[in-house]
Amino acid sequence: MRKIISVLLIVVLTVSAVTLAGCGSSRVSEITSPTGTYTRDLEGTTINVFNWGEYISDGSEGSLDVNAAFEALTGIKVNYMNFESNEAMYSKLKSGAVSYDIIIPSDYMIARLLEENMLQPLDFSKIDNFHYIADEYKNLYYDPDNAYTVPYSVGMVGLIYNTTMVEEAPTSWSAMWDSRYADDILTFNNPRDTFAIAQFLLGIDINSTDTADWDRAAEKLKEQNPLLQARVMDEVFNKMEGGNAALAPYYAGDYLTMADNNPDLAFVYPEEGTNIFVDAACVPANAQNYDAAMMYINFLLEPEVALANAEYICYASPNTAVVENPDYSLYQNEILYPAEEDKPKTQYFHNMEESIRTYYEKLWEEILLADE
Fold first, then answer.
1. 155-275+341-370 architecture in CATH?
2. Integer Cα distance of 367 and 372 in angstroms
3. CA angle 308, 134, 296 (to 5 degrees)
4. 295, 296, 302, 307: CA torsion to nearest 10
5. Radius of gyration of the chain, Cα coordinates, nearest whole angstrom
6. What is the pTM for the complete model shown?
7. CB 265 within 8 A of CB 162
8. How far is CA 17 from the centre of its chain?
9. What is the CATH number of domain 18-149+282-337?
């Protein structure tokens, strides 16, 4: 699961109501000064929201309970559900077993959903907080006319390393093939992120449609197999925080959580480039409560709400009210918001045609078998 994140800081918000929770702690369940337009016309209805796990401020440690605050403001009940991967979300949506009103997938999956006519356009006349979204995150490749999506969060992949175990600060993805760190190297346990590292290192387009390019990357990954300690996703937290591995690629926001628990950890965006991703709110074609979905998306853009979410998940925010707020605990953080001259070369994952997906998934199985 991509988003396994701890709360780093308590969100400081002026509130008009506080609901007491267990053990004497409190959670914020209302916002003070909404900037958008909301009504109680849909009070008593239910909205089904499908999001990544641990990917919304939930009231723990005194933070804003976003869903409770939305319910308090609109009277609309939030039925909140989690998924562990874009592909798992897609399968659920495709099955039609449950009707979701809001989903928050990643860019390449949004492109796939649009190709398969599984999303419906948004009514931006009802999303008057959209002006908070930074221009650099509007009209992106997966939604060029900005008709179907509202950005929620932004991230990049980098290389985490333990300064007590690595002899010199790495600058290249090649560090993950360095025999000095044999058995102390972790890598992703999913094909797209793993292939991307080899592709960046070899100078290959991560969205290549040439099977020969995928073959080259696969051979490079097979060379790495003898050096690996493990392929991980959320296990990376325990391993890197516990000093049990020297190197691991992972998402920048999650590095901040790890470094908070282990100050020996450092982070670099390798010189060859890296993946950037945007997760965005969308409305499925079969949504049952469209008007409530518009209000919910608008609510996610509220400055107080967007700040609470940014503090909670520790990923970069596309919301200017957050990024420009000097009280934001990650204000001008050099990892999440590098200066223009320090920004790495980046590339988005695109939705690959089925033949290429099938091809690299077959290569992935071969890589895993070669590792046994």
1. 3-Layer(aba) Sandwich (3.40)
2. 9
3. 50
4. 180
5. 21
6. 0.87
7. yes
8. 30
9. 3.40.190.10
Q: What is the pLDDT of residues 304-358, one digit of tens each?
A: 999 999 999 999 999 999 999 999 999 999 999 999 999 999 999 999 999 999 9
Domain ranges of the chain: 18-149+282-337, 155-275+341-370
Decide: 315 and 153 in contact? Cβ < 8 Å. Answer: yes
Residue 361 is encoded by which pair of tokens? 């998934």
**How far is Cα 301 from Cα 321, in angstroms, rounded to an integer?**
9
Burial (CB count <10 Å: 0-12, 13-18, 19+), residue 237: buried
Q: How many CB atoms lie within 10 A of CB 343?
A: 12
Inter-CA distances, 84 with 54, 96, 129, 335, Å:
10, 18, 28, 25
Q: Are 18-149+282-337 and 155-275+341-370 equal in CATH topology?
A: yes
Render the burial of 81-99: b for 16+ CB within 10 Å, e for the rest: ebbebbeebbebbeeeeee
Q: How far apart are CA 287 and CA 145, in angstroms?
A: 21
